[in-house]
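Run log, item B.
One chain of 217 residues. Sequence copied directly from the ordering sheet:
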Amino acid sequence: MRRYRSFLLVSCAAATLTVAAAFTAGRLSAQPSAVANVDIRRLLDKIGQRAEMEIELTQLANRFEQEFKSKKDQLEARAKESDAITDQAERQKLRDGLALEQLQLKEWATMKQQEADREQALRWENLYRSIVSESQKLADNEGYQYVVVFDGNAEFQRDRRAQISLGQQVVEQISRRRILVASKTDDITEKLILRMNNARATPTAPVAAAPSTPTTP
């Protein structure tokens, strides 16, 4: 009986050593992954696609403001003209029509603002996809398995108009950060900037223009 127990103990010990040895060998044989980092703020400041996007969005906003001002000025001019009408019923009818047009103008402005907000979101999504795409190509060329965003050195943003305190704003920004330190040796920000700007300079097929939105007053 003692011999049987000894045999079991020896067998269990041998099995444990075998498993431990296999696990250790597996860990030793695993190759470390190559990781690169990108300073996203520096990237966004220097890529042409972001600058082009900002210019186009500003132009859209300016066109909206000019169109809105033109429509508003026309309504105000017609409202002043109504003061000269002596017939009270006719004057009231015209003013009622102007009031309706003012409501329609307000609805139009709200719709255009929503369109501008949606367009801005789509442009940023497209920019992000371009960054991911070019990062993948650069990582493949350079032999990196991962490309991470280095956000440890980003400046903290404070907004006194926000509903939460300045201290809480900073705390929340700290909690969202993920990479505190990144090696400058593996910083591929400038390479990615050059790659994205070169890709942007390459002629591409023209993008179809978005359908125009019917204008109300």
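Observations after the first pass:
- The radius of gyration is 32 Å.
- The CA atoms of residues 34 and 182 lie 13 Å apart.
Flagged for discussion on Thursday.
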